[in-house]
Amino acid sequence: MDKFEVFQVPAGKLRRSSESNGIIPKGWIREPTLGRVLFKEAASKRSRIIESRSDWTEKAISELNQLLTLPAARYELADLNEIDGTKVPGSISVDLMQAGDDERIPLKELLEQSIPNYNQANDYQVQNVIQTLLDGLVKLPPNYEVPDGIEHGADMFVGILLLDAIVSNEDRHDHNIDIVRQANGESYISPVFDNGSSLGSTETDRFRSQMSPEQYSKYSVSFFDFQSSDITGIEAFKQAAELRPKAAKIWLDRLLRIQPEQIQSIFDRLPDNRITESAKLFAIEILNYNCTQLLDYRQKLAISERDLTSLYTRYSQNTKASGLAQAKEIAKSALIEAGLFHYQKNKKKSKLMNVKYKS
Length: 359
Fold this sequence. Notes:
By secondary structure, the protein is α+β, with helices and mostly antiparallel strands. It folds into three domains: 6-94; 101-301, Phosphatidylinositol 3-kinase Catalytic Subunit, Chain A, Domain 5 (Orthogonal Bundle), CATH 1.10.1070.20; 303-352, no CATH class. The chain has helices spanning 55-68, 107-114, 120-123, 126-135, 153-167, 205-209, 213-219, 233-243, 245-257, 260-268, 277-322, 324-338; strands at residues 6-10, 15-16, 26-31, 35-41, 75-81, 87-94, 101-106, 178-182, 187-189, 221-226, 229-232, 341-344, 349-352. The protein is globular, with a radius of gyration of 22 Å.
């Protein structure tokens, strides 16, 4: 099986950019076949580029995004060729700028405009992001394929959370999602980028030998907050699924179509000097565990959808037959059965979820 190509980047032509956020050294260069690309070294310190590195993670997840049909930056493996002959391993990502784009802003700026006194530690919550994307009429990125039924930037955000849950991404903070403002005044959510802190890539082989996939899935938390507590990537996705169940089901259906041999092929194509055998096995085990958890949840989500369909039918029939009051009681009972009825402890009343249906 052919290994992934490693692109060569001449250090003398690399333009370090102050706009490049993060702690890992990076810079822009024009690659003959790919155009303008961002080179990023494999680790924050070159002495660490042995077991703990992000170059193989970026490439592996770039391939996974194609299987999910999730709009994402294209990543390739690369070497930075220093003048003294030293080769510094890293990755390159193709510039995401498109014709008609005016500016890119981090999601943080949109949240600050939407939430008074926004603070990432307390306000960076799944429900806040989804509501902000909906209120801001943030669209899907143009010129990218998405699964049928994904219609809004908020729906793509659900897909990003699914990806992060699959790979145990620990670094999806409010600067790692961008909003692109276009010259025509519209906005769209950027294709996903910066997935390096995933699949245990920043850990050592010794750490990997002492940690099971289940333990790591619970150990690695997302940047999202809920009730002043950190939550895992899987928990973040489940919260999004409650708010956008149709989108969650579509993305989970895409995950279901991915075959184990496709995942194995991605890792088999990584050059041997880019990833240790321990890191490869650990990454595959994490993927298998997380995918199993998510697909189990898919079954529960499908059951809830059937309950909600039944609820809509019963509600519609009884509104005319028995009056609105009785219809609401039927609706309440059905939601309780589906596990979708929430009691607001701070209020002396119960509240039905705001679920919209199409007849």
